[in-house]
Input
Amino acid sequence: MKILVCIKQVPDSAQIRVHPVTNTIMRQGVPTIINPYDLFSLEEALRLRDKFGGEVTTLTMGPPMAAESLRKTLAIGADRAILLTDRFFAGADTLATTYALAQAIQKIQKTWGDLDLVFTGKQTIDGDTAQVGPGVAKRLNLLQLTYVSKIVEADAEKREVVIERRAEGGTQVLKTKMPCLIAMLEGTNEVRRGSISDSLRAARAEIITWSAKDAEIEDLGKCGLKGSPTIVKKVFAPPVRTDRAAFVEPGKNAGESADVLIEAIFKRHPALEEDMTKLASGF
Output
């Protein structure tokens, strides 16, 4: 089974700061990590490879430093890692990103054979758009399964996969044919640490690096800033709240505690009591 996992190197969201004057994200000095959602996708891909055989390739688009994250995927157990990097990709929004990735995936299939599955994370923690996975599927004309919480069954001979996906009000169980794209949710599995042999192999491994020309990108006008219609008007940090939580002394029982709480709420928000009284009276 041939599986591709798209990953992204992202800044650690716990340490991101917003510039107080320019209102732009300050990335200097912020450590980078593999997007956490992508790690769950990688683990799921490795489990399928371990069961059916084959190979797992990881792909990312980013600056040269993104090779560090790809090397970590090799240490976890991936068989091959490809970095798509070129100045033409700078400033790409999700539309331009999906175009470049889709073109690179086509080159991967030309080079190493057709893919059975493409994995992505549900979204990235820096952009939070959840658009790249579906966008890649659309460009490659792949069936797509999003918000996947569990792979119930995969049949390499019948080329079918059964999954559970999170939906409003419950869980959906879906079956589809391969090839398809699967976007995994968080917490769906326990990501392996990787063996010592994989770590040693990753340290020596060559990260395959492709420029736009190497990836046979057909239209550079659809890449990077030129191919990105999205304009970010402003980025800002939410203001720090000055009001503090109020402590309400509980009553002797549940009913009395409820009365005390309601009285405290109405005291703090007097207009709320008036509005609820009108609503209750039908006016």
